[in-house]
Predict the 3D structure of the following.
Amino acid sequence: MKEKRQFHHTPSLDDMVLFVEVVRTGSFHRAAQLLDMPGATLSRRIAAMEKRLGVRLLERTTRRVALSECARPFFERCAVLVDEARQAESLLQSQQAMAAGKLHVRIAPDIAVLWVGPLLAEFTRLHPDITLDLDLNSTVDEQGDCQPDLTIRQGSSRPAGRQVWALATLTQGLFAAPAYLARHMAPLAPAELATHDCLHQRGQGQWTLRQAGKPQQPLLGGRVGLNDLGLMRTLAEQGVGIAMLPKQLTQEAVRSGRLVAVLPYWECPSLTLVALAANDTPTPLAVALRDFLASRLALD
């Protein structure tokens, strides 16, 4: 008569991931947050795992969770398996991304025209196997499921679960055309901007200006709000009003006399161009474009 083999319940890799995360964080609550799952579900899965194995893996107190001494060798082996599995998945995703060769990039239209667009020809020559899918869109859906590989925009906020990198920090100033200042006396103090035609970002009713470290937030007059820096510069040159613009964009216009500085002794907030990844694990192609743009865009 053949001897029957005893069947042992082997923990799944998913259960090992949960167990390892709890041990590494020392807390069911923190582990549940990192794993994005309810704490009660996590506790129930670990308890079921202990029951199947017939071993108490964790010592629980009101303040913390600790690894039981007899479970230490088991944890060390599980940690190795979990880390190797994650590395294998990351390698597969990287190879798939490189093989696909397609990079979906969303860029605010003014940033595309003024800064990123002129650099893309060089990037495509350096990476002849990459296919670029460019979406010129100033509306960014930070919570959507279908995110581009990389989003290029203004700002510095970081949505949860996504990486963000600063590409360039640009100094700004206030500028107006001589024709505008011939019709309106140039403001001598920030408070006077309330009586001027100010070209401002849509929904922006104030600018923050600083002198000797002290801020002022004057109300803005004016009838034109827009979200395109290139058009804002054009309207300022045509004498429509006073605009806050990156100095990089106004150098030639100032040299030729089409624009002059307004309130030059007041400091304006910097404008930051950022690259936002689809998640916390950017594709190799997204990293390649990010590094290329950061190396080409001048930092003030």
Confidence is low (pLDDT under 50) at residues 1-7. The longest strand covers residues 164-170. Residues 72-100 form the longest helix (29 residues). The CA atoms of residues 196 and 221 lie 5 Å apart.
